[in-house]
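Practice problem 4.
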């Protein structure tokens, strides 16, 4: 269940991130080349940083539970 929820969150995040990055990238495209040199590498790698905790959570194991009949 954890991977399903995480996958949906990841998909929603990526669609939103790509939409925002495309709009900002389109506006940056008419600017000085230095802004492009700064923006596009950051936008290309920057999507993963907010997702690191989500990916760790998705791949973590549940703590062992005590049996109810003990």
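Answer key:
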């Amino acid at each position: 269940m954890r991977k399903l929820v995480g996958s949906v969150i990841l998909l929603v995040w990526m669609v939103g991130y790509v939409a925002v990055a495309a709009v900002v990238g389109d506006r940056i495209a008419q600017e000085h080349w230095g802004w492009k040199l700064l923006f596009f590498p950051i936008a290309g790698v920057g999507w993963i940083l907010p997702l690191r905790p989500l990916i760790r959570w998705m791949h973590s194991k549940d703590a062992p539970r005590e049996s109810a009949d003990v």
